Amino acid sequence: MTGQRDRWAELTGGQAGEEYAQRFARLAASGHDIHGEASFCDALLKPAARVLDAGCGTGRIAIRLAELGHHCTGVDVDASMLAVARREAPTQEWLLGDLARLDALGLDADFDLVLAAGNVIPLLAPGTGATVVGHLAAALRPGGLLVTGMGLDAAHLPLDEAPLTITEFDQWCARAGLTLRQRYATWSGDPYDDGGGYAVSVHTRPAV
Fold first, then answer.
1. What's the CA gap between 172 and 62, in Å, rounded?
2. Cα dist. 192→41, 45, 179, 184, 196 in Å?
3. pTM score of the predicted model
4. Is 88 exposed, middle or buried (0-12, 13-18, 19+ CB in 10 A)?
């Protein structure tokens, strides 16, 4: 661990797994499509790709991507969330770990896509963002993709204000050797306008 609690832990106390899963179960039961992130990622991937879901939570996205034929590993620091993921998909790989120390998990650096959805980046422990982005980039194979989704204002975050700007995030990515390929306003692919409150970004690690 980094010694400093992430913003998610400050908000939930690390006990939100069941409540979070029930929330999405209710959405699915009411007819909402809860697989937008997985569909977005699947469209970027070749069959049977290797995916790292960083900050995987209850495993909703990684489980869906596995159903679509991909090989998914999920990492999260919240044991209550991982307990749900392990119950729902016991044969998938779920790792308890701090993204700021992702290198300590010994993962091979050959993922086709690394995903950080669900406001993972804004809810990191203060001061760890650039380090985490560096670790996520290092987990990619040459030509691999980092896909992120994050709120950029209070309306799209469980916080009073956004802890970072999209410009700062892009600077972290550039420092990690990544190049912005695409940016959208939603997981459905709506165009992103500067100053928008939510951004779905696709960065790539250059091929050798």
1. 25
2. 17, 22, 17, 4, 7
3. 0.88
4. middle
Amino acid identity, position 140: L
CA angle at 199 for the pair 195 and 205, rounded to the nearest 5°: 120
Cα–Cα distance measured from residue 181 to residue 193, given in angstroms and rounded to the nearest whole number: 15
Contact at 8 Å (CB) between 20 and 81?
yes
Structure tokens at 200: 């779905």
User: What is the residue-level pLDDT of the chain in tens, covering all 208 positions?
Assistant: 344 566 555 555 555 655 655 665 666 677 776 688 999 999 999 999 999 999 999 999 999 999 999 999 999 999 999 999 999 999 999 999 999 999 999 999 999 999 999 899 999 999 999 999 999 999 999 999 999 999 999 999 988 899 999 999 999 999 999 999 999 999 999 999 999 999 999 999 998 7
